[in-house]
Design a protein that fits this description.
It is a single chain. This protein is mainly alpha-helical. It has 4 helices and 2 strands; from the N terminus they run ααββαα. It has a two-stranded antiparallel ribbon with strand order 1-2. The longest helix is centred in the C-terminal third of the chain and has 11 residues. The termini are far apart.
Amino acid sequence: MMRLDEVLALTGLSRATLYRKIAAGTFPPQHKLAERCCGWRAGEVDIWLRNPISFTVADLKRDDDRDAA
């Protein structure tokens, strides 16, 4: 799991842009880890990094389907 600062450093996005992309479905959503703590799965961020221009949340499901096959 990656925390916000690590995601921002890795992607080069600003905090506002990151949350805007999450709302638009063009960046993987965060997962709640505790009451006041959330993070991103490193594998999902890696999928976004491979193709940040055309990424959609549906790409995460397609990648899961490929892993299951």
